[in-house]
Specification:
single chain; 373 residues; alpha/beta; 21% strand; globular
Length: 373
């Protein structure tokens, strides 16, 4: 049975808040929260998805209840995604709920993972557990849009980030760009980096800015992988990006130069050769490969050339733009597009969010007309 968003009960609101706490540490698993409620309405236990390979939200909630001395037989589990039904890195959560004697499960969404896809609900119902689906669905899906993208489309959700002046400049003609936006905007940008599975940039940005491109957020336990589009394998061995510990680096190239490949592999990178017919990197193939590598959200911080290529090829889902109250005149823009002769040739976007961050504005837009999944 489907439930209207307006009917979301307090325990599901709490479960959604718990899921938000999991977002930075749990990828590539989805962020899930679970709250166990007794017949008298008392909260017995709660939990959220732990880092990959560790317990899921339902198991954490059961452990929490046990630690507090609460029996959960006859309780209701409010969970933001269908309890899993397969043996992956952990055991099936639906069986854990059944064994604990949970009487009712209220879930926001069916799991898009084809290994689950309704089987968790079916096993719960077969065991006599009442199942309701729907409360909190929109927020739970939005929170895990990258996971849904990977499971349904086979590719990550691609979010392109840029910091611009009010007239849309990302750098001066001399390429200076630090800093257009405020410290508050930069800190917020690091949170968006941290929730992604991977950060993508181009060799132009590596050579011109020598960035680290890591997520500098207090308490972060997982660094997103770094993906570099480098057609000719020009990534310098002395670049600052190599200084980030415990991070995967994937370099996509069109070059068959084995000596350069070997040098980068010795530094710890994985080099993947995916050329297109024009002798550059096949961007669509990169996304498919990243999907196979369990990348849910791909956070793009690149120059206007690579940004333009991604947009022209239809590989971008969402734009995250920080805009400063500053006019710069001439300089680089967000993306190399056009030149167009008709307004209809532009990339049409739909507003998602506009909010103040420090002295700046943060805008999120999505590519209009994108096929729903």
């Amino acid at each position: 049975m489907q439930a209207d968003a307006s009917s979301v009960d307090a325990p599901m609101v709490q479960a959604l808040e718990l899921a938000r706490r999991a977002r930075l540490d749990c990828p590539p698993n989805p962020a899930v929260g679970c709250v166990l409620v007794g017949p008298d309405g008392a909260v017995l236990g709660q939990g959220f998805t732990q880092p990959v390979g560790q317990a899921h939200a339902e198991v954490m909630a059961l452990r929490d209840a046990a630690a507090k001395g609460h029996a959960v037989a006859g309780s209701t589990a409010y969970v933001t995604l269908e309890p899993c039904s397969h043996h992956g890195r952990t055991g099936p959560c639906c069986e854990a709920l059944i064994s604990a004697g949970v009487k009712r499960v209220v879930a926001s969404l069916q799991d898009p993972n084809p290994k689950v896809g309704g089987n968790g609900f079916a096993r719960l119902r077969a065991a006599g557990v009442e199942v309701e689906v729907g409360p909190g669905a929109l927020e739970a899906r939005e929170m895990n849009i990258g996971f849904f993208s990977r499971m349904v489309r086979g590719i990550p959700w691609v979010r392109m980030k840029a910091a611009t002046s009010l007239d849309g400049r990302t750098a001066l003609p001399n390429k200076r760009s630090q800093w257009i936006t405020s410290a508050a905007a930069r800190e917020d940008g690091h949170l968006w980096r941290a929730r992604a599975c991977a950060i993508l940039t181009g060799i132009g940005t590596v050579l011109e800015d020598d960035p680290r491109l890591d997520a500098r957020v207090p308490g972060v336990t997982r660094q997103p992988a770094l993906v570099i589009v480098d057609s000719r394998l020009e990534t310098p061995p002395a670049a600052r990006l190599w200084s980030v510990a415990e991070r995967r680096i994937l370099i996509y190239t069109a070059s068959q130069d084995s000596a350069r490949q070997e040098a980068l592999i010795k530094l710890g990178a994985q080099v993947i050769v995916l050329p297109n017919q024009g002798g550059k990197v096949d961007l669509a193939a990169v996304l498919r490969d990243l999907g196979r590598r369990e990348v849910n959200e791909l956070h793009v911080e690149a120059g206007y050339k690579l940004n333009g290529s991604l947009l022209r090829e239809g590989q971008v889902d969402e734009l995250l733009i920080y805009q400063a109250p500053l006019l710069l005149g001439d300089g680089a823009g967000i993306a190399a597009l056009g030149p167009f002769t008709e307004l209809t040739q532009g990339v049409a976007l739909e507003w998602v969010e506009a909010s103040r961050v420090g002295a700046d504005m943060r805008f999120r837009t999505r590519v209009a007309g994108r096929e729903q999944f």
